[in-house]
Design goal:
alpha/beta, six-stranded parallel β-sheet, three-stranded antiparallel β-sheet, 9 helices, globular, binds adenosine monophosphate
């Protein structure tokens, strides 16, 4: 396995791959865990050549967010990636990816004005920006994204369709801890008490799924979710939404909805966690 930190070296390697090679790309910000490992394993199984990118992308962090303290562990990541059988790591430095002050900004109609797009202004622009750059540099045939970042997946799938990137976006299920907490690089920030209560996010989602048939409306579901969260006082809700899982559009009503999907984001102390679950 080869580590590429220079763009030119990566491009040169990519150009040397024979046409027709199935190339899997797994974009990550590093500090890898079993959720990332599942994406990498799948990419390795489904492709001839797998590239894992590691880049903590500054443009998707807001000024008050955790860019400077985001966990980094290139050595540990490298060992894990190698053990999973990937072929290359692309770990560029920030000034090579962004040599200039950006002049272009993505306006993402309808899909980014809600959920994390609303709570984190500029975040989805940064995601689309770095993912586009990685697609241009790595030219994968298949790109793997976790459904933990569900809104990100929907936006990237649409980006690929609309801008005709010649690749397939592959969604991968959420990997969870034994108690249901969605794995996240940010879980390392949690104190033992916060870690115990973080399970509240997935518990609420599961409860809403179990109760779905009895819930008369989206508003009733949101209210029930908020009541249930009171059992987890360290969990400060950012949003709890129920939207159409295909389009992220609001649902006129819950009983007749075909693809209701619940989304939650919350702070435990300074740590922001997200989760989501199909209610159907
Ligand atoms: P990140 O390093 O957080 O930017 O995540 C890189 C990729 O891994 C994204 O496509 C995430 O959705 C995915 N991912 C992160 N955590 C999980 C998880 N618990 N289960 C599945 N995919 C995940």
């Amino acid at each position: 396995m080869q580590l590429y930190s220079q763009i030119d070296a990566l491009r040169h390697m990519r150009q040397g791959l024979p046409s027709g090679t199935r190339i899997g790309l797994v974009p990550t910000m590093g500090a890898l865990h079993q959720g990332h490992a599942a994406l990498i394993q799948r990419a390795v199984a489904e492709n001839d050549f797998t590239i894992v990118s590691i880049f903590v992308n500054p443009t998707q962090f807001g000024p008050q967010e955790d860019l400077s303290r985001y966990p980094r562990d290139l050595q540990g990541d490298q060992q894990l990636i190698e053990s999973l059988g990937a072929d290359a790591i692309f770990a560029p430095i920030t000034t090579d990816i962004y040599p200039h002050q950006a002049r272009f900004y993505f306006e993402i109609r309808d899909l980014a004005d809600k959920l994390c797009g609303a709570s984190r202004p500029g975040h989805m622009n940064g995601v689309v920006q770095i993912v586009s750059i990685l697609f241009h540099l790595c030219q994968p045939t298949h790109a793997y994204f976790g459904l933990k970042d569900y809104q990100q997946f929907v936006i990237i799938q649409r980006l690929v369709e609309e801008l005709h990137f010649p690749l397939e976006v592959v969604p991968c299920p959420i990997v969870r801890e034994a108690d249901g907490l969605a794995m996240s690089s940010r879980n390392v920030y949690l104190s033992p008490e916060e870690r115990q209560q973080a399970v509240g996010l997935s518990r609420v989602l599961q409860h809403l799924r179990a109760e779905r048939a009895t819930l008369p409306s989206v508003e009733a579901a949101r209210q029930l979710g908020q009541e249930l969260l009171q059992a987890y006082p360290l969990v400060q809700l950012d949003y709890l939404e129920i939207l159409d899982g295909r389009t992220l559009a609001p649902l006129p009503n819950l009983p007749e909805a075909r693809h209701p999907h619940a989304f939650i984001a919350a702070f435990l102390g300074k740590t922001r966690l997200i989760d989501n679950l199909a209610l159907s």
